[in-house]
Amino acid sequence: MLSVHLILFLAFGAVAVAGAVNLLAQTHPINSALSLIAVMAALAGEYMLLGAEFLAAVQVIVYAGAIMVLFVFTIMLLNAGVEERTKGSRVATMFGIPGVLLGSVLLGWVVLRHSGTEAVAAGALPGAPAVIGQLLFHEFLLPFEITSILILIAIMGAVVLASKPPSAPARKVD
Amino acid sequence: MVPLSYYLVLSGILFACGVVGFLIKRNIITIFMSIELMLNGVNLSFVAFAAHWHALAGQVFVFFVMVVAAAEAAVGLAIIIAVYRNRETLNVDQVNLLKL
Fold this sequence. Notes:
- The complex is a heterodimer.
- Chain A has helices at about 5-25, 30-50, 55-80, 90-115, 130-140, 140-160; one strand at about 120.
- Chain A is mostly helical.
- In chain A, helix 1 runs antiparallel to helix 2 and helix 2 packs antiparallel against helix 3.
- Chain B is mainly α.
- Chain B has a single domain, classed as Helix Hairpins.
């Protein structure tokens, strides 16, 4: 019997997988970026089903919002066009495709058969911002502070990398 | 009620799509987007396990993964801009020297 929860899971999962496959199928990076946004939005729905409301909001704001805007901005800045396909090696195709099929069948069988017969209930866990904040600022205070330093270093690194290299001695102004 | 394994299979599919994109794509920006797809797949399994084991720490880890992904996107895109400025191309087949 299909419960509402399962139907929602399947719907969001179908959108996510379709977006991921579309990301691979498209040749223009802007189309890939838009399908990646669809994947992220669908994953936000999955997080809601798992009761992680805070993460669903952060997923939409940070991932689908901030990071993807950065990607789209770069694509437009560099005026990226349709990519040229190059031929991969024949050996990789010969062994890769059967290997991937075998591996995924094996993995799917193991996961479906031997793990998690217990169902995950909707909202089984309180994922409210208050609870997450308690945990974040008590138990995970040190990692939190370290990531803030990491972000600072990343911003400085991005500025240094993306700024124009100092050109040859500047011309004298008459 | 959805079994935990369904979430794991979905997360595995997304991760595999990311790996395939990383290997077959030739545009450096699309390759970078495939990495983000892999991170998203792993995040989903983190949240599913957090709900399964009633351990809220899993959701905090996802939060940290998102923060690191944001930092990574900023630095990575800056590197892409630097590569494009030096090479005038986004095709990874033509960026085959360590020297810029």
